[in-house]
Design brief:
The chain is α+β, with helices and mostly antiparallel strands. 41% of the residues lie in helices and 12% in strands. It has ten helices and ten strands. It has helices spanning 3-6, 13-22, 64-79, 119-136, 149-161, 168-185, 238-252, 266-283, 289-293, 300-318; strands at residues 32-34, 40-45, 51-56, 96-98, 101-107, 112-113, 196-198, 207-209, 213-215, 222-224. It has a five-stranded antiparallel beta sheet, covered by helices on one side. The longest helix is centred in the last third of the chain and has 19 residues, at 300-318.
């Protein structure tokens, strides 16, 4: 793969404005870069003083068919009156191509930050996640992946084994801790759960608040267990998480049935995200945005801390999973 394309080096302001003009939008405000590591996202205003956001996809990450499924899911949610930001249809389509890049235009929406300690916010999010999963269960993604061991553990472990960021003196210990974590996860990653279309990365940063929740960034949408869209909203001590989970699932249950057996997947999913995240940053290290944003990844102490974190996560996997008290 061409490193220049991989690193967005050819994505100049002129290219962006030419691409937008090709779909009928003339930039009249300049381009404001928004926070995004995986893709490149810019806010702008056109000559009619309408605000938009354009997203340029990282080359060779998703195929046109996979992006099309993301867009269709967003529109399925919007059609069900679920507050998710869907791409605009311009010149009869939502996905466009220019200068070697796929790109999409969205309406610009603002909002406050989702308040992680606001239980009313959590309840509201729970209801909408139930509705999102109602829609997600209607069919599965065909082109986009289903969450599994290979994508989240096996391939990342191979990448980390050859990663130059891991100091040679620490590599054996780090990989041994990684292997122990993977072996602890495998027997807990059962296939009894029902796959459905998920947001996939439903952490608090992907929820805005505008008189209610607004779900953004379906870039990681895929098939998986329902609990994947829930567990990242939990935080604090175990008792706090149990209270949050009770509120979340009671609201969720107004619109969709939740299989409480999936609660046993929370710690495996957390561990899978830990391994996958490290490999993701290492994989993108040639992109100048990543060394700037994650400088600690090049420090020896960081990898010592990750070895310790993996060892601690193995212990957490041995503990009983979160479980709600039965209702009588």
């Amino acid at each position: 793969m061409n490193n220049s394309a991989f690193n967005f080096d050819t994505l100049s302001p002129d290219l962006i404005m030419d691409a937008l003009e090709g779909v009928g939008l003339r930039v009249d405000s300049g381009l404001t870069a928004l926070n995004s590591y995986e893709n490149r996202v810019y806010q702008f205003m056109d000559e009619a003083r309408q605000r938009y956001v354009v997203k340029f996809y990282r080359p060779e990450r998703w195929s046109a068919a996979q992006i099309g499924e993301e867009h269709q899911f967003a529109h399925d949610l919007a059609d069900a009156e679920i507050p998710a930001v869907a791409p605009l249809m311009l010149q009869g389509k939502t996905l466009h191509q220019y200068g070697g890049f796929f790109f999409t235009v969205f309406p610009s929406v603002g909002g406050r930050q989702y308040e992680i300690d606001n239980l009313d916010h959590l309840e509201w999010v729970g209801r909408f996640l139930g509705r999102i999963h109602q829609v997600g269960a209607e069919k599965r993604f065909v082109e986009r992946p289903t969450m599994g061991i290979d994508e989240y553990l096996t391939a990342p472990r191979t990448e980390l084994a050859s990663c130059n960021l891991v100091p040679k003196a620490q590599r054996a210990g780090f990989l041994a801790a990684t292997d122990k974590l993977i072996e602890a996860i495998k027997p807990r990653w059962h296939l009894d759960w029902q796959p459905l279309r998920l947001h996939g990365d439903c952490h608090p940063g992907n929820i805005l608040w505008r008189d209610g929740p607004l779900f953004v960034d379906l870039d990681d949408a895929r098939n998986g267990p329902a609990v994947q869209d829930l567990w990242m909203l939990l935080h604090g001590e175990r008792r706090d998480q149990l209270m949050q989970l009770d509120i979340l699932l009671e609201a969720y249950g107004e619109f969709a049935e939740f299989d409480q057996a999936e609660l046993a997947l929370i710690e495996p999913l957390r561990a899978m995200r830990m391994v996958y995240y490290l490999a993701w940053v290492a994989r993108r290290w040639q992109d100048p945005a990543f060394p700037r944003s994650f400088p600690w990844m090049a420090e020896s102490d960081f990898w010592l801390s990750q070895t310790a974190a993996f060892t601690e996560q193995v212990k957490l996997l041995q503990e009983p999973p979160l479980q709600l008290m039965p209702m009588y």
